[in-house]
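Attaching the record inline, Q. Sequence:
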Amino acid sequence: MNKRLFDIVASSLGLIILAPILACIAISIKLSSPGPVFYRGVRTGRYGRPFKMFKFRTMVVGAEKLGGTTTGKNDPRVTSIGWLLRKYKLDELPQLINVLRGEMSIVGPRPEVEEYTSIYNQEEQIILNVRPGITDYASMNFVNLSEIVGSENPDKYYAENVRPLKNSLRVKYVKEQTFWGDMKIILMTLQRLLRHHP
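Structure, as predicted:
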């Protein structure tokens, strides 16, 4: 099946089937803390074009002014329900809207902020040749990212220790991508989430 066609079908069905869950999450966010339901952070998309990525808001309003771009362990900016949404990756579900709009794919390199994509080396530039995705190899390997980066200086730890590894996995995906490879990544992602959160 054509990758874009699969994305359209999968994101449409996902939004329809998950609508009750999405509505419950939205209501919970509104009741638990002041502010909008969605957070729309600017990310770098295919061919370097910026787009606004949909996520359920998991932080206090104005969180970007209170800290860095990386969320560390026990980050005080995260709301009480935000920790739950992040733990089970439920905050990522609205990105099905980005997939439907053609800004993202179900499977592809996770989108980064321009701060990081602007310093991609020559090999890493290939990452921007495809649509960013909801899940990829890096997502599976860093499913518990906030715990990995810790709480002392998460931005520095991410930049020095995590980002190079993530980018090597992103490059690997772009070079080796196939439709059946994408199906394998989707199944592996679900298995990884279930194992990490029994």
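The longest helix spans residues 154-176. The chain has one domain: 3-196.

More tomorrow.
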